[in-house]
Amino acid sequence: MQTHLNRRSFLRKSALVGVGSLLGVPTMARPARGASSTAGVTGVPDLAVVTGGDYFKSTLAAVDRLGGMGRFIPKGARVGLLINHPFRHPGTHVNPAIALAVITMCYNAGAKSIHSLKDEPHGYWQRTPLAKRWDAVIRSLIPSSGRYITVGIPRGAFLKSAEIIKDLMEADVLINVSISKDHAGTNFSGVLKNMMGAATYSTCRYFHYGKGGWNEDVEFLSQCVADINLLRKPALCISDSTECIVTNGPYGPGKIIRPQKVVAGADPVTVDAYCAGLLGLSPGEIAMIPKSAEFGLGEMNLGRVHIKEVRI
Amino acid sequence: MTRCPGRTLLLALLTMLTLLLPAAALGGEVGREGLLMLFPQPSDLGGWRPEGPPQQAVGEELFSLIDGGAEVFLRAGFVWAAIQTYTMPERPSIDLEIYEMTGPEAAQAVFAKKTEGDGQPIRLGAQAVQGGYYLIFRHGRFLVTVTGADATPDTQAALMDFSRAVEARIKQHR
Lengths: 312, 174
What we know:
The complex is a heterodimer.
Chain A: H1 7-17, H2 19-23, E1 47-51, H3 55-65, E2 78-83, H4 96-109, E3 113-116, H5 135-139, E4 142-143, E5 148-152, E6 161-165, H6 166-170, E7 173-179, H7 191-194, H8 201-209, H9 218-228, E8 236-241, E9 244-245, E10 256-257, E11 261-265, H10 268-278, H11 288-294, E12 307-311
Parallel strand pairs in A: 1-12, 2-3, 2-7, 3-4, 7-8
Antiparallel strand pairs in A: 1-11, 5-6, 8-11, 9-10
Helix pairs in contact in A: 3-4, 9-11
Chain B: H1 5-24, H2 31-36, H3 42-45, E1 49-50, E2 55-58, H4 62-66, H5 70-76, E3 78-88, E4 91-101, H6 104-114, E5 120-122, E6 127-130, E7 134-139, E8 142-147, H7 153-173
Antiparallel strand pairs in B: 1-3, 2-3, 3-4, 4-8, 5-6, 6-7, 7-8
């Protein structure tokens, strides 16, 4: 029997089992109605980077350093969650413990429902031993698959429209949960590239083929990635930079590095710029980052952002 | 009704060809059935069992199977692929991927790209690299990837067992 868990039942269950203490989440004062913005909050960093071996706790700590999930999620919100998890090789997918931490924080912050914008592959959640404890939470996710819309991108340079999952536009809040890794096409995959995960195959095909057959043009692909990011800026970006392939991306298998970092921020360009550095890359050499910055989607100059790095 | 001896002979020949096709096909394009014949059976693997049916893709379907990972294959010349997960109690699962390319050159091109910057060459097939938790080799127009969840000695031994079993099947059926 499928257990349906919404915000109310999650909070009730959380209260009964003391979920806050289980999570180790500090009790924080939250605004009555959260807003999808981090701007103008004194002392709060633009980017929180937490290093540690317990990825669930690192994720909680990273969002906590940003002021808590309540800053990003209005109470009663429908949250769209875009997780990069289609692959199964080590270092190619978001660790499910990180995704679980995000989901539990969303409910704790008052989310009404959480919509999974991309179907998870078979057995994804079972890759973490936490899956059993959070089984009801996992089953509460509402799949968004099967409902698509075509939307125009007037400012797009190459991509003028895209067929995407409908909930990407309809969710009250978008959270992008990506993994930092090598990518054969764009040299790096992170938050910006993950937006392709919300597009249909035919739209993604255009990124690679253009209008004139197979297209190996990195500039074209990178511009399309920047273009699709014009559709909607995430309220929160979480990057799994714990275990990352640095060769043979995006699918792997390949050489793995283990920065053991969870990176969180509201600015997708800043998050990618920082995470590219973890892979030994300069943000400027990953074309989609400057192209997205030129669109005003974020700041790629890390010297201009406040970064808080902690180890737990 | 008059029976035509020539037509009967032709039908008999066609029937024989149909029966022999799966094995013979490996000399040309193997097709779905032929490719699946290259996957080891539990009897070859000492306890490892396939988990459900294999996932398969032909041509651009590869995008739906391995997403952006398809680019390098399609660029080089891709025909078919099948991916199978194997499990054994108390052991992390192992993924076996077999790709049929348009020719040995295409397989070599993908091999070179996928092994760039990692792994140690080992003697297997025409060319092989072991990278701790995975093993990649090519043989003829086939590219084979075997991936575990860790780099323990047990996993590495299993990767080699899988690879040798596939190589033997490629040699047997070509």
